[in-house]
Structure formats: C-alpha cells, structure tokens
C-alpha cells in the first residue's frame, strides 16, 4: 500500500474549538472557524498538509472544525491523523471501532491516514482493536502516543503477529523534555523505520519567545498554571534562543522546531493563531506565534473522569 509522503512538520489542532480539554480551557483561546480557516489555507498552500487531532480535544470540537476545512481540499492532498483515547472509551463490545466511527463522521472521510492509541492505559487490551480497522481500510497507518519503550515494543509485537506494524510514535519531546531520547525511543524508531512525532516542541508557547515574567501566559488557562511558575527559569533559555534566531534570520519558535528536526523527529506544532490578539492571518504563512457536546463513542461519566486523567498525563516538565 502506497503511503502519502509526510511533510517535515505536523500541525496539531488541540487548541481548536472550545469545551472540555479544548482551546479555551487548556490554552486560553476562543478560536473558531473564522479565525482558523486562514491558518489552514496558508498551511496547505505551503505544503503543510498533515493535521493531527483527537476525540478528546474539545470532546469532538477539534475534529468537527478540521473536518469542515478538509472538505475544501481533495482528500488525497490532506493527511488526517486522530486518536482513540482509552480514558473516555464507552462500555461497548468494540469501543475503539465505535470511537473511530465517530471520528470518521466528524472528519467527513471514509478513512483515517494515521490512527493512534492516545495513551498506554492497557496495551494488551487496546492494541488488538487496531487490527480490524487496518484490514477494513478505515485506517491506513497506526501509531501509539505517550508510550514508553517497553509498551511500544509490546504493541509492535501484537500488531506484527497480524502483519501490521506501527508507523509512528507521538511523544512529548522538546528542549525541556527529552525522556524519549534518554530512554532510547528515538533510536528504536530509527532502527524500525517509525516516524517520531515530537509534540509540545514549544511547550504550549512557553518556548515561543512571546512569554516571560512580564508577559505571562493567559491567566485562567491550564497552560498558565503549568508554565507561569517556570517563566523565571525559562527566560535564560528563551533569551539564548532569541540570540540564535537573530543570527539566522529566524523566529524563536523556528529555533525550537529546527532543533527537533535536527534530532531526527517530525515536530508536532500546535497551529492555531497567526498573530497575537486573535486576528486573521495576514502573512499567508503557517503560524509561528503559538503561543461541547459529548461525541459518539464516549460515556458521559467516563468522559468527565477521563479528560481529567488525560490532562494529568500530558505534562512532565524537566528544568
């Protein structure tokens, strides 16, 4: 099966839309279709066509917006990536297939290019559910996210017994957080021809050069709770990054992204705003500022418990 060529940077949509684990609660954004469509168009124009989402991002809101935009392009030109999140799985015979069907509907497509197990809640339980999705053609490639090396290896064993292999790993990796490199996951990916997607390369904007002790992250957001206490320590790093950016005629976010690319990873960049203040993109370039109702396939009570556990596992900052 011929696979689509991946661009050097993946664009994430966690901050798109509002709702539980959505852009308003996590990032302090209130961005909808009008603000985001110019960003989508500019990215596609420049060949950045890999869009990553998850059911849990705004509990379906992110997928809804992405699906609306993707319909404006030929399907073969867009790479759609989304995730099964175990923490919000329903009590059905096949919760992975059920959640996948919901994603297919929201994204407006009959197949997903890359489908992920979002968290290693139970590798033995959840990994086998990917097999029929691949064999049916509803999923073209599979990946695992937030897994450690042993969990990745076990998931690959389970899938390879059915003639399927993990195509990609998506873990937190940045100048501040390098556990995947230290644990040998990057080396494992290179040895087994797996793409490593480095998410939170900009640490939700904390490494963008936009924020410091005088200009903290948006008050009331979950990223502000995580990063604002760290800004006194981060200022030295971002100051050095600004000097590097000046020498190379680049932006501060591009320094962090270039570092991740030089490490052999595909940076996963949260793409949501082209200029401070929430205005429309005027530059026709992908953004570098960075700073709902229950979806099908989830149970209400599990949803409430699950997204809290999801958030608790999404940060791990090393300074």
Walk me through this protein's architecture:
Helix 3 links the parallel strand 2 and strand 3. This protein has an 8-stranded parallel beta barrel, surrounded by 5 helices. The longest helix is centred in the last third of the chain and has 18 residues. The protein starts with 9 loop residues before the first strand and ends in a 7-residue tail after the last helix. The protein has 319 residues and is α/β, with parallel strands linked by helices. It has 13 helices and 8 strands. It has one domain: TIM Barrel.
How does the SSE layout of this entry go?
Blueprint lengths: L9 E3 L10 H5 L5 H13 L4 E3 L8 H10 L8 E6 L10 H13 L4 E6 L5 H4 L3 H7 L2 E7 L3 H12 L5 E7 L6 H4 L2 H7 L3 E5 L22 H6 L3 H18 L3 H11 L3 E5 L29 H13 L7
Parallel strand pairs: 1-2, 1-8, 2-3, 3-4, 4-5, 5-6, 6-7, 7-8
Helix pairs in contact: 11-12
C-alpha Rg, in Å?
Answer: 18 Å
Return the average pLDDT rounded to an integer: 84
First-to-last CA distance: 43 Å
Q: Helical percent range?
A: 25-40%
Known CATH architecture: Alpha-Beta Barrel
List keywords for this structure.
319 residues, alpha/beta, TIM Barrel, eight-stranded parallel beta barrel, 39% helix, 13% strand, globular, disordered C terminus
């Amino acid at each position: 099966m011929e696979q689509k060529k991946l661009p050097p940077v993946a664009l994430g949509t966690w901050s798109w839309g509002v709702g539980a684990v959505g852009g308003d609660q996590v990032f302090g954004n209130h961005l909808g279709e009008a603000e985001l469509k110019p960003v989508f168009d500019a990215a596609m124009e420049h060949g950045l066509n890999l869009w990553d989402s998850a059911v849990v991002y705004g509990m379906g809101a992110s997928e809804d917006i992405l699906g609306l935009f993707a319909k404006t392009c030929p399907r073969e030109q867009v790479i759609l990536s989304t995730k099964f999140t175990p923490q919000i799985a329903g009590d059905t015979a096949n919760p992975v297939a059920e959640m996948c069907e919901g994603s297919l509907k929201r994204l407006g497509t009959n197949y997903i290019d890359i489908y992920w197990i979002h968290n290693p809640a139970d590798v033995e339980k959840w990994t086998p559910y990917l097999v029929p999705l691949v064999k049916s053609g509803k999923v073209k490639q599979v990946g695992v996210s937030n897994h450690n090396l042993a969990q990745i290896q076990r998931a690959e064993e389970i899938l390879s017994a059915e003639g399927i292999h993990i195509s990609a790993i998506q873990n937190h990796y940045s100048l501040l957080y390098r556990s995947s490199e230290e644990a040998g996951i990057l080396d494992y990916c290179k040895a087994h021809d797996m793409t490593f997607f480095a998410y939170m390369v900009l640490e939700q904007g904390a490494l963008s050069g936009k924020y410091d002790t005088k200009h903290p992250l948006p008050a009331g957001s979950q990223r502000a709770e995580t990063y604002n206490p760290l800004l006194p320590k981060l200022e030295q790093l971002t100051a050095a990054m600004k000097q590097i950016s000046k020498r190379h005629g680049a932006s501060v976010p591009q320094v962090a992204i270039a570092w991740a690319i030089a490490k052999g990873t595909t940076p996963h960049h949260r793409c949501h705003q082209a200029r401070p203040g929430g205005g429309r993109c005027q530059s026709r370039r992908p953004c570098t500022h960075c700073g709902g109702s229950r979806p099908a396939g989830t149970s209400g009570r599990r949803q409430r418990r699950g997204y809290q556990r999801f958030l608790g596992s999404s940060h791990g900052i090393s300074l």
